[in-house]
Amino acid sequence: MMKLKTMVGDHPITLPLKRGEVAPQGVALDIADVARASSAFKRVVRGMEFDVAELAIVTFLIAKAHGKPLALLPAVVAARFQHPFLAYNAARGPLTPAGLAGKKIGIRSYSVTTGAWMRSILWHDHGVQPDAVQWITLDEPHVAEFQDPPNVTRVGGGKDMVSMLRDGEIAAAILGEGLPKEDWCQPLIADPAAAASDWQQRHGAIQINHMLVVRQSLLDQHPEAVKDVYQAFAQSRGIALAAGAAPLPFGFEANRRNLEVAIACAYEQRLIPQRYSVDELFTDVTRALA
Questions:
Q1: Collapsing DSSP states into helix, strand and coil, what is residue 108?
Q2: What domains appear along the chain, each with residue ranges and CATH number?
Q3: φ and ψ at 17, to 5 degrees?
Q4: Section 163-186 average pLDDT
Q5: Predicted pLDDT at 178
Q6: How many degrees, rounded to 5, is the angle at CA 263 between CA 260 and CA 58?
Q7: How far apart are CA 290 and CA 286, in angstroms?
């Protein structure tokens, strides 16, 4: 039986498969011991370590632009609206999203998907263009070939975003793993749940975080194995839905609009050099997955 080296994080949709409640027919998944998939994204796009992996959508688009041999599957394993994750230090006085122009904003790495969505929100909903901000980062991009724009400064020396925000070194921070439970640290976007609902109604989409990818060579040489993998994840999703998990979309047409918006987000910020069509991201085999 073909064994596929696999990397997925702990999500409601993936946990039934990781626990062995379902398994693909015809192949075996050798699943890496990773709880947070983002910690292994460099391994996915640099070392091409995995046959099957979870990957952030903007990282995938950048990887595609730089010729990485990865193929996208129409399966969303993580998605969320980013509005609650832009934080500021309320103890230092009032601040609005529009007031961030000319200021410093912290983000783990400039090209991460959370940052791309938040820059789009600031640009289109609050009038703050990405070039009008000084971005302070801690980490290099997942895709080694990607070059940060000139208004990005990477800091070292054991810095962390929460401390920098608390000490006033940055005006705001995009804290994708959630806000510290301290009174001084507050979401900058007022009523983020209402703002997210409004965004969804206007765009007719969700904000995708992570989808599934496979090696291009696996898709080319063993398309039936890819179908088996997809069906196993679909079965895992079904178990999660029955237990009350959010119905993240699987299938090509179910994700068409979501991907159109994600591609536009990455392209207008010059993260990718061309505005791919959704069809360009898939083949006849992956388009037919349902």
A1: coil
A2: 2-79+207-287 (3.40.190.10), 83-202 (3.40.190.10)
A3: -70, -40
A4: 91
A5: 67
A6: 130
A7: 9
